[in-house]
Amino acid sequence: MRRKRRRLNPKAIILVIVLVAVYILFTNIGEVIGSDELNLNNLNKEEMIVAEADVPKTQKITLAAVGDIIFHMSQINSGYDEQTETFDFDRFFEYVKPVIESADIAVANFEGTTGGTKESYKAYPRFNIPDETLDAVKYAGFDILSTANNHTLDTYKEGLIRTLDEIETRGMLSVGTYRERPESRVLYVEEKGIKIAFLSYTYSCNGMEATMTDEDLDAMVNIVNEKHVLNDKTKAAKIFEDIDEAKAEGADVITAIMHWGNEYQKDPSVAQRELADLMFINGVDIILGSHPHVIQDSKTLEYDGEKKFVVYSMGNFISNQRQETLDSEYLNLDNFYTEDGIIINIEIEKDFETGVTTIGEIEFVPTWVYRVKAPPLFDYDVIPVEEYLKSNSLNLDDYTLSRMERSFRDTMSKMNINQSN
Fold it and tell me: Fewer beta carbons within 10 Å, N or C terminal of the chain?
C-alpha cells in the first residue's frame, strides 16, 4: 500500500524561507564586517609601521659658534651711506653667510650695545653702535647672541634693555643679560628633538657695575670672575645653580658661553682652566670662550667616559683690531693675531631609544678679517680662509694671501691641540 505524502502547511513554508533568508543575510553581513575589521586592522598596522619608520632612531644637529662681534668707529663709518643717511653692514658677512646659515643653531658674542641715538654713536672704550649692526648679524645667519661681556653696561641699564629689545625685534635670542630678574637665567633651545641649554657669563663690566644697584646688577647681568674661583669656589655658585637647573629640566647638552681670560694672551690662564674643569665635572658639555681677542686652545676631553669640548677663546669674528691699528698702541705684541677668528661647527647626536646625547664630529673653519679700501672708507670682509686660499676667487695679491696663510696656520695650530686634560 502506498504511503500518502504529507502536505506542507503554507505558513510553515513561509517561516522557513524567512529564517533561511535572515540566516544568509546576517552571515554575509558578518563576513563583510569581519572583512572590514580585518582591513582596518591591517591599515592601522601599516600606518603604525610607516609612523615608526618616520621617527628617526637617532638625530643630528650642528651648533656653529664664533667669538667677538665688535664694531669700531672705522667700521661704523664705513657702513654709512651719506646719500640715504642710513647704515648697512650686511656686505661684511657675505663670504661667511653660507657657513653660518648651514648650521641648525648659530651663536656669537655681541660685544657692545645699541643704546639708541640719544648719545652719538661711539666705540671703544664704551660702545654705542647702530641698530643696523644687528640687522647684519641677523643677515649673516645667527640665531643666539651672548650679551654678557665687559661692554654690557656701556650705555648703562637703559642701553642694556634697549639692546635686548632690538635683538628680540629681529627674531634672535639672547642669553647672559636680562631686562629684570628672570625666572631662569638659562636659555633653552630645542632643535629636531634635541634640547640644548645655553648659559652665559662675563668676568666684569669694566667698572660700569657701579652704575647699577646691587639688586639690579645681580638680576640683570651674569657675572663670574674666574680669577676668584681659585680661592673661593662659591664665587661661581651662580653657574652651578644654572647647571643643576639645566640638568633638572632635561637638557640633552649644556653649553656655557664664557667671557673671560686675559686680552691678547694666546694661552688660557690657570684660572680659565680651573673654572672649565669645575664646570665639566658638574655637568657642562661644551664651553665657548671669548674676550682675549686672539685664538686660544681648543680641546676635546673626556670626563667619566663622556666627550666634552672647550675652546678658551674663539678670537675676533669681526673688528678693527688689526696690525695696522694696534701696532702704535701695543708695541710688544704680535697684533696680527687679533685679525683671526674661527667658526666651530659641533655635531650633536641623540639616540632616542637610549636617550643618550653625544658630541660628534667637530669642524674648524678659520676666518680672517680682510680690510680693503671701499667707499666711503673700507669693507671689512670676514673670509673663511681655507676656501678662498684654495680658489683665490677674490684675486687677492700675494701680500694679502700671505697674511691669510699666516692666519690659517696659526689658528689651526691651536685647534684640538691634544686629547688629554
Answer: N
Pairwise CA distance, residues 367 & 300, whole Å: 21
Mean pLDDT of 259-287: 95
Give Cβ neighbours of residue 112 (< 8 Å, ≥ 6 apart).
69, 70, 71, 123, 127, 128, 129, 133, 151, 154
Per-residue cell: 383: 673670509
Integer Cα distance of 175 and 173 in angstroms: 7
Output the average pLDDT for the chain.
Answer: 87
Give the Cα separation of 258 and 201 in Å (integer).
5
pLDDT over threshold 60, residue 114: yes
**CA 276 from centroid of its chain's CA atoms:** 19
Torsional sign, CA 139, 141, 147, 150: negative
Concatenated DSSP letters of 166-195: HHHHTT-EEESB-SS--S-S-EEEEETTEE
Q: Which grid coordinates belong to 344?
A: 666651530
Please choose, from the candidates 241, 212, 239, 234, the residue with its C-alpha nearest in 3D space to the C-alpha of residue 223: 239
- The candidate with the shortest Cα–Cα distance to 294, out of 312, 316, 276, is 316
Helices 270-282/237-248 angle, 10° precision: 30
Give yes or no for residue 251 having a pLDDT over 90. Answer: yes
CB atoms within 10 A of CB 388: 18
**Residue ranges of domains in the chain:** 64-412
Q: Which three cell numbers stand for residue 248?
A: 633638572
* 302: β partners: 307
